Amino acid sequence: MICPPALCGPNERFVNCSSLCEPTCQSKPNQPCPPVCGPPKCECLPGYVRDQGKCILPEQCPSADPTCGPNEEFVTCSSKCEPTCESPPNQLCILECGPPKCQCRPGFVRHQGRCIPHSQCPSADPKPTCDPNERFVECSSLCEPTCEWPTGQPCVKKCGPPKCECLPGFVRDQGKCIPPDQCPSIGGS
Q1: Which among 13, 102, 119, 172 has the fewest CB atoms less than 10 Å away?
Q2: Residue 79 placed within a domain
């Protein structure tokens, strides 16, 4: 059973197969639209565009696109998953249009309200402060020199997790990096 057409407003008509790309004041002319039926609803008559829920003539549309900030562009079909420093661009995202608005240009991500190159995003994990005679390394040794193994024990040359490691010429003893001659087993204190 087909329900009677809804009461449509001025310059509208009821259609059983609605367009997924009904023209609006923000849409660009000749924008490609998939030939797929949307739900039955009221659509603007040919020659009219939708603006704030009403069908008006294109010349009645408010002024052009808003001014966007640096590295932004106005888009009529905004992404619901705009890339940010915390959520980079290659994340999974539902391909669905959000409202027209300014979004970051390709190659830029939003950070603190501004669009910046992804390379300028702050590091998610700031490097920790290391103790004296240590340095932070991204590729740590799995066999750091100790008082028991001053030249490092035999092990596979493979990167360990990022961490603070003894500077060259120091060995780890009881959690601290000391010169080898201060090791208790070598005759130090």
Answers
A1: 119
A2: yes
